[in-house]
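Handout, section B. The chain below has 385 residues.
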Amino acid sequence: MRAFLIILDGVGIGELPDADEYGDVGSNTIGNLACYFNGLKLPWFQKLGLGNLLNVKGVAPVKDPMASYGKMSLASPGKDTMTGHWEMTGIVLKRPFPIFSNGFPQEIISHFESLIGRPTLGNKAASGTEIIKELGKEHISTGYPIVYTSADSVFQLAAHEDIVPLETLYKWCKIAREKVFVGKYQLGRVIARPFKGESGNFYRTNNRKDFAVKPPADNLLVFLARKGHNVVSIGKIYDIFSGEGITAHYPASGNENVMKEIVNALAQVDEGLVFANLNDFDTLYGHRNDPEGFYKALKHFDGYIPLLYDLLQESDVLIISADHGCDPTFVGTDHTREFVPLFVLSPSLARISLGWRKTYCDVAQSIAQWFGYMNFNSGSNFLPS
């Protein structure tokens, strides 16, 4: 038995009923993209049933979709990456991870600076590429690391690899994770953001490293691993779960490389769960208000859908969904609190409408039951007979 769970990071399909509490009324990542381009051409998403879920210009409903289709809403408060992914493994948060949209309080910054023995630069919400463009030259002349945050619950620390060795940058991030962001300030992730290049031509390297808070132990990944199943992560999944319950990891970066690893896993992993995240939608395009890039990434994944389906075995299930919205046409650069699509493909399952699932935990319960466990602790099974 195998289950494949692919997360299209930031691909939402319309505002949730409580979107007004988050300033997200009017957000609709797919719907607004269709308006922006006066229609989308996504033939395989159309065959999955995207047009049956949402009024998308250019993507009409189909009579007989190749997948079961539905939509999900987040039961947890918030709209960040970790909250969405954790809920898909059965964890509903009672309160959101803290977000510091105006920068971190001075007491946090002062504490961190005292622990690493030097001042910092920045301390504001910013694009990672823009802030190194703005402060990279000063960082090189002073050796002070650049602190910034985003719409996620993150403390990001940027430093030039020729000025601050990677081992030192990782050490500073570990200090922040273990000694600064605890208690009431326990945010989701501390992220090392190394870069290289010269002033006017700085670029981030692939040596990013995330230091995430550990998830509760009663999640699907730990549950399956304890039962003796393979739990394979691809892309940023390992960091989101701090490696908990993961038995093998493929640290691919970028949608194309992640897709190649997914295809490899379909050919090579003989049993268990494969959990992958396609992050470019969110990081490269949603947060940068880049509709053209977002649409290009959607078309890129659309082209992979028939290959994924052809590689499925009779005893496989493939679930495609998202963790939140990140509407590149919407005001600001934050995540957007939206419904997310839900597509289920398997040669052995009937194809039906899955309706509106009120929690992402239904993913966890459905995968647990796919492996024969009827008593997982949350959610309800949506897999058709």
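Note. The first strand starts at residue 2 and ends at 8. Compare this with the example in section A.
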